[in-house]
Amino acid sequence: MHDLGAQKLDVKKVKDRILKCCKNKPGLSDVAQIVDMALEFNKCKFALAWEGNQHLSSTLDLGQIKEDAPILACFGDLKIDGDFFSRYHDDWQPMLFIDGTLTCNNIVKGGMFLVVRGDINLTGYYVGDNNEGYLRVSGAFNGAGFVPRLRDKLPTEEYIAGGVKAKSFSIVDCSDHQLKKYFVPEVIAGGWSAVNIDEIINFAKAGKSIWKERNHPESETKLTLPPLVERPADPTNLGTIGPLTKLKEELLSAITAALQASKSNNPVDCFSEFVNHELETHGQENAIVLPGGTKLDGDLILENFAPWAGQSKVSAIVCLGDLEVAGDILNKTLEHGPMLFVKGSLTVNSLHKAGSTVIVLGDLLASELVIGEYNDGLLRVAGDLKAAALLSLDHDCYVAGETKAPYFHSDDCIWRDHLSEHVFSDDADDCPDAGLLLRCFKAGLPIFELSGSEHQ
Questions:
Q1: How far apart are CA 406 and CA 370, in angstroms?
Q2: How many CB atoms lie under 10 A from the CB of residue 287?
Q3: What's the pLDDT tens digit per position in 241-288?
Q4: 294: closest CA among 324, 264, 315?
Q5: DSSP run (H or E) holding 18
Q6: What is the pLDDT of residues 132-141, one digit of tens each?
Q7: Residue 220 and residue 284: Cα distance in Å, rounded?
Q8: Domain boundaries, the chain
Q9: CA 225 to CA 440: how far, in whole Å?
């Protein structure tokens, strides 16, 4: 048990002195509220205080102190020849206030509150334990690394006024992917624990770095991609417009014929039910009927808000043969979009579809990517599919013929294991951003991890 050699003083007098020390100091504006919370957790009438600079010859573990007090204050610098531990997850351990600089090897801090009027100088690491309590520093943080888990989740500059002069990464709500990206494997625990605190302390004692140097967030630059410039095409003048219901028998018969002629030994009719669903849902609306061999110059914006859809209450495009789109087919709305039904083969640059039903009874030939996004829409191909890649982001895709493309599906893969960092909109995301997939591919950037570059 530690005998701190601190004085027992009236807690109200210590509180007043702390607030006087913190007045008008950057980063310490809410210390009064923090002190009040510490006093709420512990009703003891005295606080522990050191006068002047203090030098402890061994590790300070607040879980081993003899006295029960809401505040431990050092009115001067505090130097510890060892580590500072406060690993309890609750708030009842004393709040530590230092009216100067805190110097030690490593800090492991759980639920306790720590307020430092000067700098924190470490030879090793600061690591937050679960349910980490408040940290307020008017000076700067210096050390081998800063790994907080602060419950208030403030930006670092709001609680360390002088800045963090070390590599840092917050493990609050972080993903296992982020841990693997920034930390060496030996210190990763994953899941709820995130990191192995004891192993981090061992690394510090051995003078070893816990960081993956080349992947540290401070050294990363944000990728600048050219925007996708859409060239909306209007299919209206290339065909005729009529009631969708009048096409029912023709569409269902075409599905039957295509599956009977399929090169697949056991094609499944998972086509007709969705045509029937479209007819039941949008039977009172119109379809644009295009002749076989139609070529559309530009991008087909397969959305209900597209001008060609709204002007004539169009809910479907039906092509009676092959359809070539000299551009992309884009349906980004997750919940809905007009149906695209192609009796022949469909040729396109990229197909990015979400809520729409897209049915192709011939082959689907994409020179770039085929992306299915979310589970409200579906893609059905009775023939073969050829593309640079088929990426199903929780989407219903069925190809009766041969899939002549690298095929990745949310149910079967961990996206981070296969795809480049550039296609994720946020470092915590486990699913890629469909828009970034297209933008990276069109910009000539790899969308696969180097180990998977043979897929492109």
A1: 10
A2: 26
A3: 999 999 999 999 999 999 999 877 778 899 999 999 999 999 899 999
A4: 324
A5: helix 11-22
A6: 899 999 999 9
A7: 54
A8: 7-219, 236-455
A9: 7
